[in-house]
Amino acid sequence: MPASLAVEPARPALSRVQSGLPNGSPAPPVTVRHSESDTDAVLELADGTAFRGLSFGAQGKSIAGECVFQTGMVGYTESLTDPSYEGQILILTYPLIGNYGVPARPETADPEQIPDEFESSRIHVAAVIVGYYSEDYSHFLADSSLGQWLKESGVPAIYGVDTRALTKKLREKGSTLARVLARKPDAPAAAHARNLSVESASRAPSPTAWREDYVDVPFSDPNTKNLVAVVSTPEVRVYKPVGAPRMHPSGKRPLRVIAVDVGMKYNQIRCFTHRGVELKVVPWDYDYLASSEEEFDGLFISNGPGDPTMVTPTIERLRQAMEKADRPIFGICLGHQLLALAAGAQTSKMKYGNRGHNIPCTDAISGRCYITSQNHGFQVDTATLPEGWKELFKNANDDSNEGIYCVDKPFFSVQFHPESTPGPRDTEFLFDVFIQNILDCASTNSLVPISMPGGTKEENEKRTPRADVQKVLILGSGGLSIGQAGEFDYSGSQAIKALKEEGIYTILVNPNIATIATSKGLADKVYFLPVTPEFVRKIIQYEKPDGIYVTFGGQTALNVGIKLKDEFESLGCRVLGTPIETIIMTEDRELFANAMLEIGERCAQSSTATTFDEAVAAANEIGYPVIVRAAYALGGLGSGFAQLSEGCESALDGALSAWPRAVRASAARRRRAPCVCGCGRCCVKCSIYFCIDDGTPDGWLRALRFDSLRSPLRRRPRPRPPPPAPPTRVPPSLRPQTTSSMSFEPIASFPARIGAAHDSPDVPGRERCAS
């Protein structure tokens, strides 16, 4: 593909709506109204930038606060009830919000009855901003729509805002003050979302005339207030262990931890009580050092909102506890910042903070990287840590501090949220580290520094040395068609970006022209060729890469890696990332289940049936509900849930009907289904999976697999298309020139060139390919 033909793809105009019209009027909504009753509202930033949207929360209420964005895809119920968002206008960057509704709210206000679906007793955000909102919802726990919940709670919300443009602005300018303005009841109706234009807005008498139609409120900075006093518990509450308590070494009582609530999330309580710890939650200014205080074994400082320097009483009492040094201390998020301030370090406000569910953090001791959930706008300045304190975690994106620990005392804290909700639970083991540290100190009657799992960085680097590669081949996904998922295109593009940041020359094999990974300027060289063993082998022989990735192209790339596993060494190409042996193990259900049993992990049980009746009998034996899934079907076609045997039979019919009873051999090959050819026909093998809840407390799913050979169905043969013309050899003078950013190999000339010697006059030299 010549570089001159690489055209930047056209992008929808709505995704490039400007942040404000030339005359100062708000940018129009990017979506249509759900109903004519939806009123419009405006999000205005402190610099005058304004976005008009449609209200789906509390009506007629204007609010001001700090405008921040959060990048998580799901978990809006947990995020909205996170006390760390107190006073903030939250932008949810994921395009579609509200499709799974909101669970039922607790019927009682009993503080000891902690609901599983929320992180506090109320919504804490000042307002919610989304791009596209779905009033229709579908989830087995859903009790209402998101909009209804927001209205009940009196929280304004706007949809139809260009959150992409808004987020880009915040990333450039940083978090800013903003306000959500509701339209006055007596104001004239706003123009329809699609009719707002620059031309019509230009007739406004002044840049601020539009504000006359909205309820005005002044800008307000929540960080100037003591938000902790607003969100902290007003009274002491004790939460008993769930299940068997973890006993103190004396054997007389369970382990007891005092948690200072400076904005505590419910899941932090769950993480302690589900580990057998008795948790005493106290207000932010509670004197837990008083002589009358009941004996406790550890001190925990929770997450919370606002500027940590505003919580002076908590910092001072924490400093006294560290000077007393008679028990372990653990802090999370705001608790991390308070611990650092009490130790003598300093904190500062970040440009736009870290708020999301997939933020990587590196363990300074082991060198391991963990994916974390975060929500904070302030940070600890590592350079100000006093003697005896070291950095424990570092943000892999912006190098900001994510954790500290005391070298000779059991004090440590992390900036991220190991309790997650929402987000990954990769670092929940830190609660186990803290509890084990409490036991160690109580058992030895001395202060034992924390011990982190995972070994040391030197040990890990020696066990898994870093690959020294200069040129890497990446196998992209197989041919994509409309309706297929493109997740491997996105993962492949991210892999290319990461490799280029390391200065590694990247070569991509991907037959899909209109994809992200094949965009101009991404990979250094792109081969628009089928991802097959034959082509990949020739490319390796020609390009001589140091390494190859087979994990960014889906099943097609994995299959190629498995078929070439015995040839990579002779080709001088090292497999990077997941080893081929691991891929083979994960692709084979029986091998994978055996591997899981070796490490004590439960795995989805599978069984095989050869008839419809056998499948129904097996499902009845295991129990309902079940999930029926047709194997080898594109996008889960024919899959479904079944609560009873009648539903199972219906789901079986749907799964089996997902495949034609007879297809030509070519069609079967395109679908990558095993087939038996005879007399120009083939029988397609289908698989159906049943996943059921076995009723155990941990709710493990087991699966039943159903394989069936369908009988052929007579079908009129389609005329075979004429064979394609043989490829034309492209003269060197007409071949596209390689640019400094990337090059494209023309498919027509590739077979003739791939086996040619480097010194052939028809083949560009190695130095030219690398340019």
Question: Could you please describe the fold and organization of this structure?
Answer:
Residues 593-638 form the ATP-grasp domain. Residues 720-734 have a biased composition (Pro residues). Keywords: ATP-binding, Ligase, Nucleotide-binding. InterPro entries: ATP-grasp, CarbamoylP_synth_ssu, CarbamoylP_synth_ssu_N, CarbP_synth_ssu_N_sf, Class_I_gatase-like, CPAse_ATP-bd, CPSase_dom, CPSase_GATase1. It catalyses: hydrogencarbonate + L-glutamine + 2 ATP + H2O = carbamoyl phosphate + L-glutamate + 2 ADP + phosphate + 2 H(+); hydrogencarbonate + NH4(+) + 2 ATP = carbamoyl phosphate + 2 ADP + phosphate + 2 H(+). This protein is of the alpha/beta class. It has four domains: 13-224, Carbamoyl-phosphate synthase small subunit, N-terminal domain (Glucose Oxidase, domain 1, 3-Layer(bba) Sandwich); 227-459, Rossmann fold, CATH 3.40.50.880; 471-586, Rossmann fold, CATH 3.40.50; 608-709, no CATH class. Helices cover 24% and strands 22% of the residues. The chain has a ten-stranded mixed sheet, with helices on both faces. Strands 1-2-10-7-4-3-11 form a seven-stranded mixed beta barrel. Helix 7 crosses helix 8, helix 15 (580-587) crosses helix 16 and helix 17 (612-622) packs across helix 18 (645-656). It is globular. It starts with 39 loop residues before the first strand and ends with a helix. 38% of the residues are buried. The model is unreliable at 1-19, 191-202, 659-718 and 733-771 (pLDDT under 50).
